[in-house]
Amino acid sequence: MIASLLIASMPPPAEGAYPYAILDTAKVVIEAVATGDAVTASALMEEDAQLIVVDEREAGQPRVRIRTMTALLDHLEPAPDHHEPLGMPKVLQDGGLAQVWVPYAFYVGGERRHCGTNNLTLVQRGMTWKVATISMTMVPPDRCADIAREER
Known about the structure:
This protein has 152 residues and is of the alpha+beta class. The chain has helices at 2-8, 20-35, 38-43, 69-74, 141-144, and strands at 45-55, 63-68, 82-83, 90-94, 97-108, 111-125, 128-138.
């Protein structure tokens, strides 16, 4: 909760500056969703935000799911044993629109369950950034090394 208040008070980056406010917002939302913190996540998201999952954990065609973030957040429960280390992010920004592309791995109780890439679209609202869309891929743990996910 405190993290969301700190992020909300951050000014947008100056033209040409590294977009820390964008990246910090994305990281806080990713961690909040991973650990089941719906209050923090919803404070940094657009009301009608979307979640798009391309799940490649089963053989055959990827399973694509599109749903509202409200539907996801309504079912989140605290999960302190969940952890989602992130790789090196790429941030693109054009005025009040930004993209964050970052590889991740997802752990439950210290066991890697899957990995993939998170792609967040953020929009600027006054002095804050809000997540409008989270798109993500999910691949099984045995493919994580194949796609060179760097965790930190």
